[in-house]
Amino acid sequence: MTTITFKFVSFGENLGTRILGERVRKDLIASIESSDCVILDFEGVDVVSNSFADECIAKLIPILGGINELKRKTTFRNINDYAKKNVLIALRRRLYVECSE
Predict the structure, then answer these.
(1) Band of pLDDT at residue 99, cut at 50, 70 and 90
(2) What does pTM read for this prediction?
């Protein structure tokens, strides 16, 4: 089993825009496709906005074929409470949109 650690701090300590989220998502997809598991490591990241979380992480749900596949292929590490809250909000909103379509 191959595991890759994806370090978000390499994109900055404050991750706040959709433009950045899209750029990071493209790199993240490449990592997910080339491994069995990707550790989403937020060590050194202070802020993750709702916009970034939606663009980078929540949009992976339809790309990967559902939340279960996202859970199977990724795991979170070193994420602070503020960032965790915004990621969860983005995931819930994305799941709601997927379910209501």
Answers:
(1) low
(2) 0.91
Contacts within 8 Å (CB) and 24+ apart, 66-70: 67/91, 67/95
Q: Residue 86 in contact with residue 50, Cβ under 8 Å?
A: yes
Query: Which segments within 10-60 are labelled E, that is strand?
Result: 14-15, 37-41, 47-48
Nearest to 8 by CA among 32, 28, 30, 22: 28
DSSP-based three-state secondary structure for 38: strand
Give the sign of the dihedral formed by CA 17, CA 8, CA 78, CA 65: positive
- What values do phi and psi take at 44, rounded to 5? 85, -5
* Residues in a beta bridge with 36: none
Q: 73: pLDDT confidence band, cut at 50, 70 and 90?
A: very high
- Say if residue 61's pLDDT is above 60: yes
